[in-house]
TrEMBL record:
Gene3D superfamilies: Aspartate Aminotransferase, domain 1, Type I PLP-dependent aspartate aminotransferase-like (Major domain). Its cofactor is pyridoxal 5'-phosphate. The keyword Transferase applies. Pathway: Amine and polyamine biosynthesis; ectoine biosynthesis; L-ectoine from L-aspartate 4-semialdehyde: step 1/3. The keyword Transferase applies. The lineage of its organism: Bacteria, Bacillati, Actinomycetota, Actinomycetes, Mycobacteriales. It comes from Rhodococcus artemisiae. Its EC number is 2.6.1.76. PANTHER family: DIAMINOBUTYRATE--2-OXOGLUTARATE AMINOTRANSFERASE, DIAMINOBUTYRATE--2-OXOGLUTARATE TRANSAMINASE. Keywords: Aminotransferase, Pyridoxal phosphate, Transferase. Pfam families: Aminotran_3. This is Diaminobutyrate--2-oxoglutarate transaminase.
Amino acid sequence: GTHAGNDIFEHLESEVRSYSRGWPTVFETASGSWLRSEDGKDYLDFFAGAGALNYGHNNPILKSALVDYIMKDGITHGLDMMTTAKRDLLETFERVILQPRGLDYKVQFPGPTGTNTVEAALKLARKVTGRESIINFTNAFHGMTLGALSVTGNSMKRAGAGVPLVHATPMPFDNYFNGVTEDFQWFSRVLDDSGSGLNRPAAVIVETVQGEGGVNVARAEWLRALADLCSEREILLIVDDVQMGCGRTGKFFSFEEAGITPDIVTLSKSIGGYGLPMALTLFKRELDVWGPGEHNGTFRGNSPSFITATEALNHYWTNDELERGTLRKGERIHQTFMNLSDMFEGVSTRGRGLVQGLVFEDPSDAQKVCAIAFEKGLLAETSGPSDQVVKLLPPLTISDDELEYGLNILAEATAKVRS
Ligand code: PMP
C-alpha cells in the first residue's frame, strides 16, 4: 500500500479512535500486568483493557486451558447450541458463584459485549413489567448502542445519537450534590403524584461505582435505600456490573457488600477472563419470560471464552486469596493518593477495591499526568464528565512491586504537574 507504517491508522481508521491518541505507540505483546510495544518498550498496565483483564494479560493458567481446548479442535463457534464448554461454564458458575451466595438467577448469553447485556436487561425489564421507561443516574455509563446509550449520562457520548430511543429519566447519583445526602423520599412522592408527569418506570439501572463517570462510589446505605424503593414500588432493579463485577471491588459482585439482591445483573469484560468477548445477563428465575429466539445473536456462544471463564472461576473464586489481595492493594493505592491529596492543592481521591481515582480540580492536570505517565512507561486512563479523574484499574493479579513501581510514576507525575 501507499500508506506505510503507522500512517495507515490515520489514513484508514475512523476519527472515532480514542485510546490510540493518548497512547501513541504500536503494541505487540502482553504478559501479566505489562504490554510491550513493537519497538521493545514495556508499559505497566493500570488500565487492564478497561476492566476486561482482571487476571492480567495472557494469564498462564487460562492460556494453557485455552491452548489445550484449541489443540483438541474444541468448538469455537456454536451459536447457542449445547456444548461441553458451555455446560462446564454453567455448572461452574452455579457451583462457584451462585450457590455460595444464595443467588437463584437464570443466565442468558445476550451477545459478546457489555452493551449487549445492557440491551437484554432493558428489553427484559420492559417485557416483564409492560412498562417502557427507565430510571438512570447522572454520570452513568451503560454502553454505546442506542438503548444502552439512552441510559448513559455523558452528553459527549450521546452527541452522535440524537434523540434517545429509550425514555430515560435521570436521578442524582449518590453524592452528586457533594456531601449533601439525598434519600429517595422526593422520588417516592413524585412517583405517587399523578400530576408529576413521570411515567411509571419498568426499571432502575445503576452502577455501584461509576467507572466511566469518574469513579463515583455509591454508599451501601444508598444502594439499600434504592433497592427498598424498587421492591416497594415493583420497579425492577438492574445492577450493571460490567466494569465493577468479577472482583474489581473486592467481591465477585460489586453489590454483595451492600447486601442487596438485584432483579437483573449485567456482567461482561472480565467474565471471560482472558480478554475474549463474553457477556452474561442474570435475572431472578421468575423473570425468565423470554420466548425461544426472542433475543438472538450469532456470537452468543464464544466457546473459547467459556473455557477461560470456567478456568478463572475455578482458580480464582474457590478461595478468598484474590479478594483479600484486591482489598489490600486497593488500600495501598488509597494511601498513596491520600498522601498526594495532602501534599498538593486541587487533588483528591475516591474509590473502592482496585478501582481508585485520583481526582484533579483542573482536568488538564489529569491529562498531563497521564501523558507523563505514558512517557515513563505507565498506561493510565482518565474518566469523568470532564476527564478530570485518573482512573486506576490494574489487573487484580498485579504484584505489590509492580503496583509500587506504577504508583511512584504517578506520584512523580503529579508532583511535576502540581508543584
Ligand atoms: N456498562 C458499564 C458499566 C461499562 O463500564 C461498560 C464499558 N465501559 C459497558 C456497560 C459497555 O460495555 P462494552 O464496551 O463491552 O459494550
